[in-house]
Amino acid sequence: MPILGIFLGYRKAQDERHPTSPSPTPRNSHDIGHALHRSPAAGFRGDAVRPARRKVAGALALGAIGSAAVAAKTPEATRRRYAALGAPAGPYAHGVRHGDLLFLSGLTAYGTPAQKGDIAAQADATLARIAAVAAEEGCDLGSLVKVTIFVTDLTRIDALRERLQAHYGNAPPASSLIRVAGLFHPDLAIEIEAILALARSHSRSSDIQGVPS
Predict the structure, then answer these.
(1) Which residues contact 134 (CB under 8 A, 6 or more apart)?
(2) How many whole angstroms from its chain centre is CA 180?
(3) Secondary structure of residue 156 in the 3-state scheme
(4) C-alpha neighbours within 13 Å on the C-beta side of residue 155
(5) Residues β-bridged to residue 192
(6) How many CB atoms within 10 Å of residue 31?
(7) pLDDT at 184 over 90
(8) Cβ atoms 129, 191 nearer than 8 A
(9) Which of 80, 158, 168, 192 makes the best surface tag, with the fewest CB within 10 Å?
């Protein structure tokens, strides 16, 4: 039967061109991707897996870069002691510098001739100490950005304001005024905490060694 022979010959040629035998076992990740692409029964395609992996890898890389950038921009805090203030009387630093800001512990007129004076005299002595710290950092009271003032009596507030204005001049800082029942010594009528913006990285102060930032 010539027709049947022709048909069987055609089928044989088609089978040789498009074999139905299973694909060879993948040997590496590249072959796995192609195998997934060729196997609809797997439920997903290899060409969909690879872009997803690339997105995850890219996100992780961007996260690492972002973390490194934040770490590079985050300044360390350094603890300061100032010769003009003598040794601290307790477990504290005279100041802590973080970036371009210097945070000073509360200062008073204790140990100065003004200790037994009125609030105006004590304010002068306290601000003179802050000015001495600023000088060690290469600036002056014009670098004050914030003060917090603790007083035991508000009846002499006008005299206090006059002295503050004399020291601040045309560059008054932001300020808080808080009345308290008392300070650490009965002679004291005022204590001032201060924050300064430092214009220079150079300092003549002494960093406290062995204290973690």
Answers:
(1) 140, 141, 143, 144, 196
(2) 33
(3) coil
(4) 2
(5) 107, 149
(6) 14
(7) yes
(8) no
(9) 158
| Inter-CA distances, 89 with 79, 107, 114, 202, Å | 15, 12, 19, 26
**88: confidence class by pLDDT, cuts 50, 70, 90:** confident
pTM of the model: 0.62
Which token pair is 25?
């076992």
For tokens 């004291």, the residue is 188
Question: What tokens were used for 180?
Answer: 């308290």
| C-alpha angle 154-158-164 in degrees, rounded to nearest 5 | 105
- Cα 64 from Cα 69, distance rounded (Å): 9
CB-based contact 174:109 (threshold 8 Å):
no
pLDDT in tens, 114-167: 999 999 999 999 999 999 999 999 999 999 999 999 999 999 999 999 999 999
